[in-house]
Amino acid sequence: MTNVESLATKPLFGLPLAELWFALLFFIFGMFLFLDGFDFGVGVLFATRNDDHEKEQLLAAVGPFWDGNEVWLVVFGGALFAAFPSVYANLFSRYYLLMFAILAALGLRGLAPEMYEEREDDRWRTLWGYSFVIGSTVTPFLLGLFVMNWLVGATGLITPVGVLGGVTVLVLTIVDGAAFLGLKTRGALRDEMRDYGIRAAVGYLGIAIITLGVIYVTEPGLRSSFRSITVVALVMLTATLTGIYTVALRRRRYYAAFAATATLVFGLVGLVATLLFPFVDRTAGLTVREAIISTLPLNIMSIMASVLLPIVLGYFVMLYSAFSGPVDTEETYG
């Protein structure tokens, strides 16, 4: 059998590629939620600032990163389309308006800082400052709404579980943003962001527990999954990491807090993936193995991903290394 024939008939190296691509899909989404999550969190915390100088510091903190971080959302959409095209079509058809609302909110969040810096006029800056806050608040809420609707297989756009999921993701981004600002700011501003982060962490744990409880009560088909060791471990990990995050901020261990935030984000994404599996589209009744593309393109795509993904990760390592450390007190977004 030739190599081409082998690629067309057998998974690469005998690996469970369907399951690996399912895991990779949620890893990519986790990268987006973690990295762009602190951008959203900074945008929400922007609403707490009245001093123009402090606002400029917050904008300068995320300035080098936010547009690069959004690449992960594009990669997520591309991976979903490439590996699970039927699911991509179903989700975009089912949540068409929600998808466009997410894109509109992302666009507003990206446009607002650019417009904010265009003029010194107070009314102009107030308008675009509010736009920055609105875009940064609405986007993670809608993302949480989308993910929770996807998880439970909801056919409507607004559901109780979806709304709770939206609030959960929104509060998590504030946790993320406060930890990031602990690394990027100094003095009284950093101390205030630390206090907001501690409050947000407590709120996140509470709303996450409520959301899981509502899912357990309203979704009988998912109850057996809640008893799995993985789900129990992830829930316990979330509670533990919330405590670690809070202690780290109190002791001004900002790198530890940021690392705890990363694990919290991937813990939430992993929990969603675990509850969804083996389905990838519960509404359509499609499992991971049923929805995955055929063997040959899957093998080729896996080879390409094994080459390109490390390059992308390496780029982000260099980006964050180049702009590491607190922003200068006189630095601005522009």
UniProtKB/TrEMBL annotation:
Pfam families registered for this protein in UniProt: Cyt_bd_oxida_II (PF02322)
Organism: Halobaculum magnesiiphilum
GO cellular component: cytochrome complex; plasma membrane
Localization: Cell membrane
Transmembrane segments: 20-48, 69-89, 128-151, 157-184, 196-217, 229-248, 255-280, 300-323
MF-aspect GO terms: electron transfer activity; oxidoreductase activity, acting on diphenols and related substances as donors, oxygen as acceptor
Listed name of the protein: Cytochrome d ubiquinol oxidase subunit II
UniProt gene name: cydB
NCBIfam families: cydB
Topology versus the membrane: Multi-pass membrane protein
Gene Ontology terms: biological process: aerobic electron transport chain
Key words, A-Z: Cell membrane, Membrane, Plasmid, Transmembrane, Transmembrane helix
PANTHER family: CYTOCHROME BD2 SUBUNIT II
